[in-house]
């Protein structure tokens, strides 16, 4: 694993360290979780934007497809 230095101001460094100490995480883990949360939020934002552009026909198709999944039992999803 390669290591690098990330320059942040003292206040942010302390907040990262404090959060990590309270939650049993390393500074790197805190940063990784924060980045994962930001990426997840961005993905959800893009999905919401795409859904907002869906036509009535798209929504009908989506509902029909979801009904198939809803009707399937867990056993039906196994190989």
| Separate helix tally | 4
Oligomer, anyone?
single chain
Topology pattern, helix = H, strand = E: HHHH
> What can be said about the biggest beta sheet?
none
- Give the helix/strand class: mainly alpha
Q: Mean pLDDT, nearest integer?
A: 92
Strand content: under 5%
Radius of gyration: 21 Å
Unreliable parts: none
Shape: elongated
Describe the overall structure.
The protein is mainly α and 79 residues long. 76% of the residues lie in helices and 0% in strands. It has helices spanning 10-23, 27-52, 56-71, 74-77. Helix 1 crosses helix 2 (27-52). It is elongated. The protein starts with 9 loop residues before the first helix and ends with a helix. The model has no long low-confidence stretch (mean pLDDT 92).
Offer a quick outline of the entry:
With 79 residues, this protein is an all-alpha fold.
Secondary-structure blueprint:
Blueprint (H helix, E strand, L loop, with lengths): L9 H14 L3 H26 L3 H16 L2 H4 L2
